[in-house]
Amino acid sequence: MDLIAALRSFVRVAQTGSFSAVATERGVTQPAISRQVSALEDYLGARLVHRSTQAVTLTEEGRELLLPAQRLIDDAEDLPFNVGARRGRPAGRVRIALPVPLGLYLSSHLAPFLASYEGISVDLVLRDGVSNLIEEGLDCEIRLGPLEDSTLVARTIGQTKAYLVASPGYLEQHQPPAHPRDLEQHDCIFYQRWGRENVWWFSTPPAPGDVAGQDLAISVSGRIHSNNAGAVYRAALAGQGIALLSHLLVAEDLAAGRLLHVMPDYPTRRFPIHVVYPSKRSLPPRTRALIDYISGLLEDDPDMAMDAASPVRR
C-alpha cells in the first residue's frame, strides 16, 4: 500500500464526504478510492469512515486521524526540499481560489514566482463567489469585501478598484446617466461581487442634494446577469448595457476607447481584498510564499495597494 496516496484519498473523502467526488478529481473509479481507504483502515486496524448511500462520515478514529494525516502529507511533499541542493525551499502544490479578474491577472504574472520556486505548482480556481476551503481542498482563497466566516484566518492585502463602463455604441443609443439613480433607467449587466449582486455602491461628490463622501447604494436591473465577470465584460464590450467591472479587466479597453468610463464624478465603492485560509491548520511554506507574492503584486499596483488616501470600506 502506498501510505501517502491512501492518506491523500482519505483526507479528500473526509473533506468532500464522497468517494465519487474524489474519484472524479483523480480520474479513477469510485471503487479504486474506496479500496485505498479500506486498505488504510486495515493498516491502522480501525474503521475511519461510516459508509452509506447518502453520505460518507468520519468515525471518531477518522476525526482523530484527519489533522495528523494532513501533516504527514504536507511533510511528504516537502521532503525532497528538506535535503540536498534544494534544502529549505518551499515545495508542493498550492490550490488557491480567486475572483475571475484577479485570477486572470495572476495567471499572466506567475512566471517570476515559478522561476523563484521551482518545486511549487499552482492550481488557480477562478470563481466570483465564496468557496468552502475544506470541502474543496483549497489552501487559501482571495475574497472581496467584509468577511463573514470567523473560522478562517484573514490577511488584508489590498483593495478593489472598479469602473462603471459601457461601450460607445450603447451610450450613443441611450442617454448617459448623470447620477447613479439614473441607472434605474438603464440596462445594467451584473454579477456576484460582494453582497447583493444587483446593488452597486458609489461615493457622492460635493454637489447639491448629496453629502460629500457618503456611500450611495443603487439597485440596478437588466436583462443579462452572470456568475462570471468575464461574461459580463464581453457583454459590455458588445454594447449590451452598463457594467461595473474591475480595472484589471477594462483598463486597456478604456485606454483604447472600446469602453467609456461612465459617471467618473461618482467613484465606485472600494472593498478590501483579503486572503483567507483555515485557522486550524498551520500555513505551509509554499502557501505563505504564494500569498506573499500576490500581496507584493497588489502593493506594486497603485489601483490595488493599500493607500491611506483611498480608505477601503470594511
TrEMBL record:
Gene3D superfamilies: 3.40.190.290, Winged helix-like DNA-binding domain superfamily/Winged helix DNA-binding domain
Family designation: Belongs to the LysR transcriptional regulatory family.
Phylogenetic classification of the source organism: Bacteria, Pseudomonadati, Pseudomonadota, Gammaproteobacteria, Lysobacterales
Residue stretches spanning the membrane: none
Protein source organism: Luteibacter yeojuensis
UniProt entry tagged with the keyword Transmembrane helix: no
Domain HTH lysR-type: from-to ranges: 1-59
SUPFAM superfamilies named in the record: Periplasmic binding protein-like II (SSF53850), Winged helix' DNA-binding domain (SSF46785)
Keyword Electron transport found: no
GO molecular function annotation: DNA binding; DNA-binding transcription factor activity
Protein's UniProt name: HTH lysR-type domain-containing protein
Keywords: DNA-binding, Transcription, Transcription regulation
